[in-house]
Amino acid sequence: VKVQPVYYDTFSLALPDLASGQIDGGLLAIGDAINVARHTDLRVVAVYDNGSFNTVVSVPEISQIKDLAGKRVGVQVGTSYELLISEMLASVGLKMSDVTLVNIDPEAVPASLGTTIDAGFVYEPYTTEAINKGNHLLLKSTEFVGLYPDVIVFRGAIVKERGQDIEAFLKAWFE
After folding, report:
1. 134 exposure class (CB count in 10 Å sphere: 0-12, 13-18, 19+)
2. Pseudo-torsion of CA 112, 74, 140, 175, nearest 10°?
3. DSSP string spanning 129-160?
4. What residues are paired with 151 via a beta bridge?
5. Which tens digits make up the pLDDT trace of 143-165?
6. Is the pTM for the entire model greater than 0.70?
7. Strands, E assignment, the chain
């Protein structure tokens, strides 16, 4: 099947494009898929990983999760990434109310560490960017495997109109 990949420097910009029909499908965390599905008919056609390739990075002074008490934690509020922050905090006996959440895109986290946030949710290449600036890798989401899987989604009309193309895409993807 012929596919035209669309790359977004800021991943969150893909979500309104998917909801408005400017793109036909995408690779999303399950929570993002649920949020987009509130605005358009969206179909999950496959799970492609267990959502375990994300991280939380922090300023160098924060070396343990428990050190986040009273600190500012950057995450896209209302996404499945917020769930990871909640579970991370709970793993050391902290609650969400023990930190100040700052609504921020993962792409902005490396530049914001030490200024507007003390720690933040990121994924590659932003994990490496943050660490190369001297920050600390606080958590790998592999410690919470399966918390929010990543899925392949298409708009409902595309599934209905181009089912064979989607089947071919999935065969190629998993090959």
Report:
1. exposed
2. -90
3. HHHHTT-EEEEEGGGGTTSS-EEEEEEHHHHH
4. 28, 47
5. 877 777 889 999 999 999 999 99
6. yes
7. 25-29, 42-49, 54-58, 72-75, 100-103, 119-123, 136-140, 150-155
